[in-house]
Design goal:
The strands form six sheets. Strands 6-8-13-10-11 form a five-stranded antiparallel β-sheet, with no helix packed on it. A five-stranded mixed β-sheet has the order 7-15-14-9-12, with no helix packed on it. It is 0% helix and 51% strand. The protein folds into three domains: 3-68, no CATH class; 74-212, Immunoglobulin-like (Sandwich); 217-327, Sandwich (Immunoglobulin-like). It has strands at 3-8, 14-15, 31-35, 43-52, 59-68, 74-77, 80-84, 89-98, 112-118, 124-130, 144-148, 155-156, 169-178, 187-196, 204-212, 217-225, 246-255, 261-269, 274-286, 292-296, 305-313, 318-327. A hairpin with a 5-residue loop joins strand 1 and strand 2 (14-15). The chain is extended, with a radius of gyration of 28 Å.
C-alpha cells in the first residue's frame, strides 16, 4: 500500500524517528516522502498530515494531494537457447507481464499484437501459441496458434485473451523445428515480438537461439505435490508448499538426436530447505538401455547430490529419474 517516510532535509535527508521539543516561535522543516504502490490507478489522492503535541495536545493539519499519472509498460521474458537434432523440434516458453496502472489490450489503452521471425529463411520453421492454461505444454484444441515465422507482419491476439491489468500475464510457447536436411552446428535465431498497434506501449522482444546437434541428450524436469501419500500431477508449473510438505521430482532423460550418446551422467541437488524423503530410482521408459545406475544420492533425511549414470542412450531412448524431498519444518 501507500507509505510515507519523514526525512530531515537539513541533515542529509536522514529518516526522522522523533522530533525534539520546539520552543515557542521555533520551527523545523520536514520532508514527507510518499511512495505510491506499483500499479495504482491514475487519479488524484488526498493526503492529510497532522502535527500533534503529545504534551499539550496542540495540533495542526494540512491538506496535500498526489496526482498519480498514467504509466504504461510491459515486460517480456525471457531469451532462450536450445539444441535439436535434424528434423527435431523444441519449445520455448515466454511470459508477457503487464506493468501498467491501466488496463491493457482493451482496445482503448492498447491493442496487443504478436510477430515471429527467423534469422534463417531456409531449413527452419517456427510457430507461436498462446498458452491458454499456462502449463508450458502445447495442447491441441486448447492452445491457440497465433502466427508463424513464415508470416509477414503482426497479428492481433485473440479476442479471448481479453484485457489485462497490473501484474497479470499472457503465456506464449514458441515451437522451433529444424528440418532433416540441416547439418551439425547449423543455427537459427527466432524472435518473438509483442507490440501495441496504438503505440502507447513500447515494443518488447525475446530471442530463441537453436542449434543443430546430431547426438543430443534432452532433459525435462517435472514436479508434483503430495496427493494422499503419493505423487500428484507432474508439471513444470510452480506450486505453493508448506513446512513438512512432500515434493516429488521427475527428470526425463531422452536422446532427441540422430546418433547414440555414450557415458552420460545426470546430476541434481536436493533444493534449499529440503531433505531427501524417498530414494531416487532410475528406470528405462523407452528402448533397451544397457546400464542405468543411480551412483550417488544423499541418505534419507540428508541433503546432497543425486547422480545417475547411463552407459549408452540410442536415439529415442528414454530414462526417467524420480525422487522426493520433504520441506523443512
Amino acid at each position: 500500500g501507500w507509505s510515507v517516510t519523514f526525512k530531515d532535509p537539513n541533515n542529509g535527508n536522514s529518516t526522522i524517528t522523533n522530533i525534539t521539543n520546539l520552543a515557542a516561535g521555533a520551527s523545523r522543516q520536514i520532508t514527507a516522502e510518499v511512495t505510491v504502490p506499483a500499479g495504482y490507478a491514475p487519479g488524484t489522492v488526498d493526503l492529510f498530515f497532522r502535527a500533534l503535541s503529545s504534551t499539550t495536545g496542540a495540533e495542526d493539519i494540512i491538506h496535500d494531494a498526489v496526482v498519480v499519472q498514467t504509466d504504461q509498460n510491459m515486460q517480456l521474458t525471457s531469451n532462450n537457447t536450445g539444441q535439436v537434432s535434424p528434423g527435431g523440434s523444441i519449445n520455448y516458453q515466454h511470459t508477457l507481464t503487464i506493468l501498467s496502472n491501466v488496463s491493457e489490450n482493451d482496445g482503448t489503452n492498447s491493442d496487443l499484437q504478436v510477430e515471429l521471425t527467423n534469422s534463417e529463411a531456409i531449413g527452419w520453421t517456427a510457430v507461436v501459441y498462446w498458452d491458454t492454461n499456462g502449463d508450458g505444454v502445447i495442447t491441441n484444441g486448447t492452445d491457440s496458434l497465433l502466427t508463424s515465422g513464415a508470416a509477414s507482419g503482426s497479428v492481433d491476439l485473440p479476442a479471448s485473451v481479453g484485457s489485462k491489468s497490473f501484474n497479470q500475464t499472457i503465456k506464449f510457447i514458441v515451437k522451433v523445428t529444424g528440418l532433416g536436411s540441416l547439418e551439425d552446428g547449423d543455427d537459427n535465431i527466432t524472435t518473438l515480438i509483442i507490440s501495441d498497434s496504438q503505440t502507447n506501449l513500447a515494443t518488447k522482444s525475446n530471442t530463441d537461439g537453436t542449434t543443430i546437434q546430431a547426438g543430443l541428450v534432452k532433459l525435462d524436469k517435472f514436479q508434483a505435490p503430495d496427493a494422499g501419500g503419493s505423487a500428484g500431477t507432474f508439471s513444470k508449473n510452480p506450486f505453493n508448499v508448506l513446512p513438512g510438505d512432500t515434493v516429488y521430482y521427475r527428470i526425463v532423460i531422452n536422446n532427441d538426436g540422430s546418433q547414440p550418446v555414450t557415458t552420460i551422467s545426470v546430476t541434481d541437488d536436493t533444493p534449499t530447505f529440503t531433505t531427501m524423503l524417498i530414494a531416487a530410482t532410475a528406470t528405462v521408459t523407452s528402448g533397451t538401455v544397457g546400464s542405468v545406475t543411480v551412483t550417488s544420492q544423499p541418505s534419507i533425511g540428508a541433503t546432497g547430490t543425486i547422480q545417475v549414470d547411463i552407459d549408452q542412450l540410442d536415439p529415442t531412448e528414454t530414462v526417467t529419474l524420480e525422487f522426493a524431498v520433504k520441506v523443512d519444518s
